[in-house]
Q: What sequence folds into this?
């Protein structure tokens, strides 16, 4: 559509119109990708951050499984005291 308008209405050379449309599309795509990357970094929605959080959660869960019931109860009581 943009090509037909550029060539037909404005009388731009066909090769120049194609080149300009290609450059415009490339620049637009790069800006869009950059914006999405910055958004993902700002919200920590990146693969590495997710994998690290999943790993940390798994380690904590494994350590919690290995604790005795008395130790778990002591931790719960300590957390309750710290919250108030």
A:
């Amino acid at each position: 559509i943009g090509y037909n308008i550029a060539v037909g209405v404005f009388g731009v050379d066909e090769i120049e119109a194609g080149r300009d449309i290609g450059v415009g599309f490339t620049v637009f795509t790069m800006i869009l990708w950059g914006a999405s990357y910055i958004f993902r970094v700002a919200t920590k929605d990146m693969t590495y951050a997710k994998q690290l959080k999943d790993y940390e959660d798994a380690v904590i869960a494994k350590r919690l499984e290995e604790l005795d019931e008395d130790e778990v109860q002591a931790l719960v009581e300590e957390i309750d005291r710290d919250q108030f």
Q: What stands out?
A: The helical segments are 2-8, 14-42, 47-66, 69-83. The chain is about 85% helix and 0% strand. The mean pLDDT is 88. The radius of gyration is 28 Å.
